[in-house]
Automatic annotation (TrEMBL):
Pfam families: Citrate_synt. GO terms for molecular function: citrate synthase activity. GO terms for cellular component: cytosol. Keywords: Transferase, Tricarboxylic acid cycle. GO terms for biological process: carbohydrate metabolic process; tricarboxylic acid cycle. The active site is at residues 262, 319. This is Citrate synthase.
Amino acid sequence: MGEDLGFSKGLAGVVADATSVSQVQGEDGRLIYRGISIEELAEKSTYEECVYFSLYGKMPTKNQLTKFNTELRHNRVLPKAVEAVIAAAPRSAHPMAVLQAAVAAMGFDEQPVNLKNEDANIHNAIKIISQLATAVAHISRDRRGLSHIPPNTEMSHAENFLYMLHGKVPNKEEARIFDVALILHLDHDFNASTFSARVVASTEAKLSLSISAAIGALSGPLHGGANEKVLEMADGIGAPEHAKEWVLNAIATKAKVMGFGHRVYRTMDPRAKVLRGMLEKLVATKSDKSTYETLRIVHDTMIEELGKTSKDYIWPNVDFWSGSLYRLMDIDSIDFTPIFAVSRVAGWSSHIIEMWRDNRIYRPSAKYVGPTDAKYQDIKNRK
Ligand code: CMC
């Protein structure tokens, strides 16, 4: 009591906690993981190295990375109970719903959290990061009526995921593009799913249950679900020649264009730039360029038209280009958001481990706007 209770709808601008995992520099269109720009990591690093960096807070030595890779690779097989939960899902279920249940099932045999045992918590995170990729591939194959491809311990995280998804070893170029896409999605400070993970974990709930909650948050179209919606939008537009008119109409009717806008960025999302660069290289090798062309026109028209208005702060975000990239890798649109989770699970885990070093339950206040002196009315007198 006696505290100044600030109110900010959607918690905009509220500093909810401290973190050193990542920072979004919205005005400059910059994203750093523990100080290093994502452009540099995308160019020089691998997903595995970034996961280590994110979890442990320092870059691994060669030996540390080899040991870490071995641990990731040998945790890929799913427990039977998780397989059973996946098998019980109807094929019509959205894969994010199945994934949320599958990750919750990873908690069936998880020990209660010991905040002081950071080492055990990190090893648990590594297991979940490893198994989540297998779960996404298995869920996708079940939906497509295909048998599961067991994980392969000789392959990197990206290669093995594509292998389990498609049933064939990916070529080196596509595996590297996918690896970079995983790096780009790894973390993004206090986005909605990370915040959800932190809220749940702040109660000292198990890691798997906190991550399961984050998957629920990620599934929404305003967050990770936008990548699937962008491709739905492109398919709805139908052909590049309809794209400009479609955008003009969307602006006129104040319809949201998926893959655009952000709470923090006031310029181009740096992840969108890197993704577009890779997409352009990949699209040049493919005969069907229509989805890319449609989205390119949506992109250019949005920037040009909004640039003439007071909404010139609305720019493309990470979800605008990622789906087109995945489509060129023969991945179904419905699997795009689960793939976001394949990467972001490392960010969620890193935030939780960081937070548990000095944990305090998240419990904000509400601005109550209801009546304060209402009386109970007997049911027979109610209308
Ligand atoms: N298309 C058209 N107008 C937009 C868009 C958009 N994509 N995004 C925001 N606006 C408008 C919005 O309608 C509002 O207008 P008005 O002031 O007239 O009511 C104004 O811009 C401010 O938007 P806001 O909704 O207050 O912004 P927010 O910070 O609350 O929401 C957002 C951010 C990302 C949820 C929102 O921009 C949005 O819904 N974008 C589309 C979905 C999307 O691409 N989500 C992915 C987000 S980034 C990666 C991720 O998290 O997965």
